[in-house]
Amino acid sequence: MNKLIKYILLSLALILIGYNSLYIKKLSDVNKSMNSNFDAAAFAKKIWTDKLPSRLDSAIDINNLKQLIETNPIEAFNQYTNALDIGNNRYALVKGEGIIDAVNEDDVAFTVKAKRPFNAFLATEFVYGNTLRDATGLFNLKDFPNTTDLNNLSKELNNIVRTEVVPLFKSKLKIGVHIEFIGAIELNKEHIHFDGLEIIPIKVKIVP
Amino acid sequence: MRKSINRIILILVAGLSFLGCGHKAKDKDIKKIAIVVSTLNNPWFVFLGQQAAQKARAMGYEAKLFDSQNNTSLESNHFDNIIVDGYNAILFNPTDADGSVASVKKAKSAGIPVFCMDREINSTTAATSQILSDSYSGAVDIGKYFVQQFEKKGNYVEILGLVGDNNTWARSKGFHSVVDNYPGMKMVAQQSADFDRNKAMEVMESILQAHPDIDGVFCGNDAMAMGAYQALVSAGIADKVKVFGFDGSDDVIAAIKAGKVYATGMQFPKIIAETAVKFADLYLKGKRDLPQKVPVAVELVTNKNIDDYIGYGKK
């Protein structure tokens, strides 16, 4: 009898220990539990209306930037580009003019007006990544101890481009149309390629 | 004669003892850095650890590498030994974002600064600084390229890394922040393979039994991408399914060149390791205002720009 009670108690203890040492969670729940309370959409909207316009005035002419990179890359990258990450990727606000070559489902291909014209495209569908956030130079890592907030900020700034900026110009563009643009670009310091450059559009104006 | 030999031996022994004392005094002057790595069963972490040790030694420190074997208990034991052995700083690649916090706090209480490398811990007050790959942004780039390659339509599988590691979720979230915007992209299975090549092969084999008709696989690291690729080869569909990895390891860079793997996110373990050593050096020399988190950019590598890269971003 004593033995039976002993075994029952032992089994109960083992079940209790086992139950408390094993936790089963759905992968989706683990993912959700890491979300932050930062309202990135509201913050991005405020930056877009309050801070970005004055920054756009400092956008460098894309041809000047290209020329400066060719002659003095260190000064060019130090003075005209920004990045929150350590590494080769640098981001800049640029302006310029161009002639439309094609209006595609996901982008607009055009030729940048310059002494040596080159191909570029305005991203209209695949507007992702940190290009816009970092190019503005408006953000400091120390203000964002939570990495998720910074990532969400990029996402929301890109959403504004996709939902508010692109509809303002895309339907009006046709082959041969002359445009003025202000946008954000990514350049890799180690592998610089201007031909085929992707530009995240911030302002696009049709020149009559 | 015998007496004089004994005397000579005695003098020599005494002399050697003094020399030994001198060495000990010199050894005490050399500061020690411990490098604790989550696992040395993955070549990426081996490279990270070796780079950190190499840089620390080059800067005049004594450096020792500890392998946690993806086990937080073993990791905790390493920290205990490191504290007892009087190390001056710890360069730490954690095993678990939550489970490793206690070890870092233990070191902090003992007055030893901890610098996290590549993997994050879920605390912004325990480690002195965290130098981390920007996994989310790297995965955003992969997600964008992934959708473009499938022209917004296809069935795919996601193989996750360690569930307790923040990089696993940063990569998954970054990837989905793009891919989920396209209803034509359907994830037919999502499973963890713990960043392990063999487990990824087994996971992929079992997924293929239920979903033989897939177009792409996104893996949370390159080791798993190679494992998934092996399973696809065994199933005879490797030429039909596009595999995407994350890391920029030697074998995946070679596989992209050979057309076996489609793309990867190039991390820069050398930059991460060297920055961690520099920060430790600055701290030990008195600097205290180091940033809590320092992201290191990840670059997308595809067959279009493969010639710009070699394994682990060494170029």
Helix content of chain B: 40-55%
The stretches of 5 or more residues of chain B where confidence is low (pLDDT under 50) are: 16-26
Distance between the termini of chain A: 100 Å
How large is the count of helical segments of chain B? 10
Radius of gyration of CA atoms of chain A, rounded to a whole number? 26 Å
SSE arrangement of chain B, N to C: HEHEHEHEEHEHEHEHEHEHEE
Q: Strand order across the biggest sheet of chain B? A: 2-1-3-4-5-11
Distance between the termini of chain B: 67 Å
Beta content of chain B: 15-25%
Helical fraction of chain A: 40-55%
Structural class of chain B: alpha/beta
Order of the strands making up the biggest sheet of chain A:
2-3-4-6-5
**Shape by Cα distribution of chain A:** elongated
Number of helices of chain A: 7
Which structural class matches the secondary elements of chain A? alpha/beta
Summarize this, please?
With 208 residues, chain A is of the alpha/beta class.
Task: Describe it.
- The complex is a heterodimer of chains A (208) and B (315).
- By secondary structure, chain A is α/β, with parallel strands linked by helices.
- Chain A is built from seven helices and six strands, in the order H-H-H-E-H-H-E-E-E-H-H-E-E.
- Chain A has helices at residues 2-21, 27-32, 40-56, 62-71, 73-80, 131-135, 147-169, and strands at 60-61, 89-103, 107-112, 118-123, 178-188, 197-207.
- A five-stranded mixed β-barrel of chain A has the order 2-3-4-6-5.
- The longest helix of chain A is centred in the C-terminal third of the chain and has 23 residues, at 147-169.
- The mean pLDDT of chain A is 90.
- By secondary structure, chain B is an alpha/beta fold.
- Chain B has ten helices and twelve strands.
- In chain B, the strands form three sheets. A six-stranded parallel β-sheet of chain B has the order 2-1-3-4-5-11, with helices on both faces.
- The N and C termini of chain B lie far apart (67 Å).
- The interface between A and B is medium-sized, with 28 and 39 residues.
